[in-house]
Structures are given as C-alpha cells and as structure tokens.
Amino acid sequence: MQTLEYTAPKTLKDAITLLAQKGDAARPLAGGTDVLVQLRVGRRPQVNTLVDLKNIPELTRLSYDPREGLYLGAAVACCHVYEDATVRRMYPGLIDAAELIGSVQIQGRASVGGNVCNAAPSGDTIPALIALSATCSIAGPNGTRSVPMEQFCTAPGRNLLQNGEILVAVRIPAPAPNSGAAYLRFIPRNEMDIAVAGVGASVVLDSAKQRITSARVALASVAPTPLFVTAAGQALAGKAVTDEAAIQAAADAAVAAARPITDMRGTIEFRKQLVGVLTRRTLHIAIQRARGA
Amino acid sequence: MADKVHVRTTINGEATEFLCEPRQSLLEVLRDVVGLTGSKEGCNDGNCGACTVLFNGRMVTSCLVLGVEAEGKNVTTIEGIATPAGLHPIQQAFLENAALQCGICTPGFIVAAKALLDREPNPSEQRIRLWLAGNLCRCTGYDKIIRAVMDASKKMQEVKAR
Fold it and tell me: What domains are defined for chain B?
C-alpha cells in the first residue's frame, strides 16, 4: 500500500474543508472494509490521505423519531443497525440487507453509508434502502442537499458526490401504517458472497390490509447501478394482496428492467430468471410483514 | 514515508504505546511492532478471519483496521485468551477435539468462538456455523472445529452451574 496520511477530524466542517482541499488525493474512511482493500490492491493510486469520519457526531448517530423516521449516520456499522431493537422492529427490510454483508467481523466495521458510497451494483443495502424510500443527506463546501437513494449511484463504483462532499446520513421515512418491506439475494453459498441478483421490495396496504396502495421494487447486480423499477410498483397499485397475477406482472416488469451482464457469478439468462423469482418472493414477504403476520 | 504516529492503546488489558505508519494495519502493528505474532495473516483482505481480534469487544479482522485507529481502544488478541491458570476452555476443547492441523486459522477461530460464547453461552450448531463463516480453514473440513466450540460451550456452562 502507498504511503498515507491519516486524519480524524472532529467536526463535519473540518472534514469537508480537508476533503475539498485535497480533492482526489483524499478518501473518506468509515469502516474501511472496501477502501483499505482497494488501496492495498492498487486501485486508488492517487489517494495519499484517509479522512476518518468516525469521530464526527453527525455521522455516528443512529436515532428514530416517529415523525422524522430513521436517521442513520453514514459511518454507523452494520452491527449497530441490526442490534438496535427499534430498527429491527421498524425496518426489517433494512435488517435483511445489513445482516447479509460479509462476515460478523466485517459487519462490526462496515457501515451502511459506506456500502452506499462504494456504489457497487451488488451493494445489498442499496435496493433495500430504495424500497424504503430512503434519501441521502449530503454536506459539502456549498451547503447541504438531499438526494433520493435511487439517484445516488451513477456507475459501478461511482456516486454523485462532488469534490468535498460527504454522505452524512441516510434518512428513511417512518414506516406508513400497514407497510412492510424485505430484501433477498441469491448467492451460491450460504453466506459471505456477492449477490448474483438481489431484490428489495416494500408495500403499503389499505387499512383493511386487503389491497396494495403502493409498492416499490429495486434490484441489485443486474445493471451498472442498483436499479429502481417504478413499473413493478405500478403493476401492484390498487391490486388485492392475494392477486398472484399482479405479483407476476410486477416480477415481469422487474425482469424487463434488468439489464445484467454475464460474468463469473452468473449469466444474463440466469440473472433475469433470478430477478423474477426473487421479486415474487420478496413481495410475498413484504406483504406478509405488512399484514402483521 | 509519512511520519510515524504515536498511538496509546490497551492490548490484552495492558496499557501499550507504539509508533506506526498510518498505512500500517492493526495486524501488521500487532505482529511486527508490538511483537504479538499470534494473529495470523491469511488473505490480508478481510475474507479469511485468521487475523480476528476483539476491538473494543467487537470482533473484527485486524487486517482491515489501521494501527492508528487503535488510539484509546481496547484490543484483545489470541495472546489475551489464556490465563495464568491455564488454557481457556475453548483452547482446551480445540486440543481435545483435534480441531486443528496446520494451525494458521486457529487463533482467529478461537477469538471468534470466544466472542460468540461471551454473548451467547449456548448457541445452536447452526448459529456457530454461521457465526464462524468469516473464518476459513483449509485443513479440517470444519466439523471438528464446530464440535470443539459446542464442547467448550457445554463445559463452560457446567463450570458456571457449579
């Protein structure tokens, strides 16, 4: 690994100033489980400074408010997310993804915000967060902005953060009444692998829990970025929770939107098949959770 | 070369200071600077778990932690598992169940198993297998390791019940 400087600013302002000054030569550090590996294999030769964000209060806070929803600081490790009783109760769709990433060792370090910023097409938390209508709270030299999760990733390993900008937190609205969400992925092993395909889904049901008011579906590993499939949600709006034809229509829409590649993990045909199956299964779980089963 | 950084930390209960380069991993520092060579380097990218240590009580792969991040933290390595009175029951169970061959993965497995049994004294076999999924062994086929952890769990509870 190249020679590095390490700095751990205590305020967001200092971190932004530093990152803006150094440009591509600086890289934020949260859990480090992606960036340290990338540095070691020589994939980021321009980096000479790591800016540790774990001493900044805005990035390490995890809190829930019934009106504001979830504030998930970008440097909060996966283990703190899935060990939090409130998050477990309110956002099982996020827990599904946070518990899947790497080993227990990795989950002790890797942050959800880091998974998002790494912008891998296979990043497990991203489709789960898109399904939950999450937004990215960003701060930079020119102030703050908020971006829907589905717009954050722009290409494999690339996101829309500009020079000096930091993902401060992921915000998730408080769950609507009678709503549910889930994330599933396919891997050929039982654990410790990268998604061949993944599907996050959420549904909101009417007060009788008989009809789907709205739904969101997002996919992993089948496009250059995690993919939000609006057509899949539209296929379900107004449909009965037992309407298997509507669920199939949503799955068909997801398959149509997927544009996977063939690589060592799977072929185009296999990934499309997986998207259909996983969309149906994820929707079934989301509906079941929304009905409070 | 970047200036070396002075780090004050606690390793296996003892206040420790060291100098390291910012790019050095905690694993490198433990082995090459502090002289604790029990933690092993397998893959150096967080896959194999041979370098597993407890970092403020949380198990992590020390190859994916920077040495400088240890400032003010509490680190437990395999060297901190046994007591002057003897081996830890998990270490004893690994011996009695022949749960190792070459031994490179063993320190990581023992630290990881201790992290599990400290939190959950009586885990199921499936829970043990999932918890230890981040520790790779190329010799044993895992079965004896799992049996050793189950054995240790049983014995530790018997001791507690006494």
Answer: 5-79 (3.10.20.30), 89-161 (1.10.150.120)
Distance from CA of B27 to the nearest CA of A (A): 13
Residue in this structure with the two tokens 């201790």, named with its chain if needed: B114
B107 — contact with chain A (CB < 8 Å)? Answer: no
Residue B28, SS3? Answer: helix
Domains of chain A: 5-52 (3.30.43.10), 57-172 (3.30.465.10), 179-290 (3.30.390.50)
Which DSSP string corresponds to A49-83? EEEE-TT-HHHH-EEEETTTEEEEETT-BHHHHHT
Name chain B contacts of A102, Cβ cutoff 8 Å.
46, 134
Q: Is A193 near chain B, with CB under 8 Å?
A: no
* CA proximity to A109, closest of A80, A72, A129: A80
Is A155 at the interface with chain B, CB within 8 A? no
Distance of CA B142 to the CA centre of its chain: 17
pLDDT in tens, B108-159: 999 999 999 999 999 999 999 999 999 999 999 999 999 999 999 999 999 9
* CA-based nearest residue in chain B for residue A53: B69
A259: alpha, beta or left? (left if phi > 0; alpha if psi -120 to 50): beta
Q: What is the pLDDT of residue B1?
A: 59
Scanning every residue of chain A, which has its alpha carbon at the shortest distance from the alpha carbon of B45?
Answer: A37
The CA distance from A131 to A287, in Å, is: 13
Q: Do B68 and A6 touch (CB under 8 A)?
A: yes
Please indicate whether, in this complex, the C-beta atoms of B22 and A50 are within 8 angstroms of each other: yes
Are A90 and A181 contacting, i.e. CB atoms less than 8 angstroms apart?
A: no
Question: Considering the entire predicted model, what is its pTM?
Answer: 0.96
Nearest Cα residue to A99 out of A137, A136, A125, A66:
A125
Measure in Å the smallest separation between the Cα of B105 and chain A Cα atoms.
Answer: 14
d(CA A207, CA A242): 16
The answer to whether B65 contacts A32, with C-beta atoms less than 8 Å apart, is yes
Secondary structure (3-state) at A176: coil
